[in-house]
Amino acid sequence: MELKSAVEFARSHRKGVLGTIRKDGRPQLSNIIFVAQGDEFAISLTTDRAKTRNLRRDPRAVLYVPGDDFWNFVVLDGTVTLTDVTTEPGDDVCEQLVEYYRQGAGEHPDWDDYRATVVREGRLIARFLPTSAAGMLQKG
């Protein structure tokens, strides 16, 4: 599958499955929400999750993006870079998380509460850069 068409398809979706590599080499899969940002896809993670630990050890990942039916999907192979963990409301990573939320869900009813929550949860942004693609896209 051509990478360009797979990325275009993924850009029109928000839900997927992120595959990372466990220490023993087996895959670890997580349902995630993502947003397209430039050539990358941003994903909000918490610092203490398995997928975050896996990506710190090995930045290779797979993003599976399902379509509206079983026969339409893309699988993007790529690498992930991780931001620092947000440590205080209003720091650079916190503001990146605000932008991530705005892109994916719109305006939050209480941005001060959102900022405090992402700090308390130890959130960061994973930036997935796709390098190749597979899948199936059927028209009609």
As laid out across the biggest beta sheet, the strand order is 1-2-3-6-5-4
Q: CATH first level of the domain at 3-83 and 125-136: which class?
A: Mainly Beta
Summarize the amount of helix as a percent range.
25-40%
Low-confidence stretches: none
Specify Rg, calculated over alpha carbons: 15 Å
Report the strand count.
6
The first-to-last residue Cα distance is 18 Å
Mean pLDDT: 96
CATH superfamily of the domain at 3-83 and 125-136: Electron Transport, Fmn-binding Protein, Chain A
Number of helices: 4
Main β-sheet: number of strands, strand sense, barrel status?
Answer: 6 strands, antiparallel, barrel
Derived structural class: alpha+beta
Assembly state here?
single chain
The assigned CATH architecture of the domain at 3-83 and 125-136 is Roll
Task: State the order of secondary-structure elements, H for helix, E for strand.
Answer: HEEEHEEHHE
